[in-house]
Amino acid sequence: MGRSHTRGSANVFSDLGFTGAEAEELLAKSVLIEAIADTVRRRRLTQMQAARLCRTDQPTLSKVLRGRMESVTLDRLTAWLTALGRSVEIHVRPYDARAKTGQLVAAW
Question: pLDDT exceeding 90 applies to what percent of the chain?
């Protein structure tokens, strides 16, 4: 028997059935969380040390680093990144009259 494959989109959350806006937010959160995890690794911080710098508790940080995004906002993730010494930039692109809606794009 042959295997069938479906080509995914650039957003796994969209592929999982989330609405466009939900998928974009979840993708942005995952990019920020990966940047937090990378920063903690590069700085050789324990989760306790990182949590203290982020002004949160270790269990919350651990939960987020394991992918539990529902309890954390984009704002909080960007605050954690800046507390860990990273700079976060937000760019607003020009208005496109042809677009029905805008989109949230996260890149790292």
Answer: 53
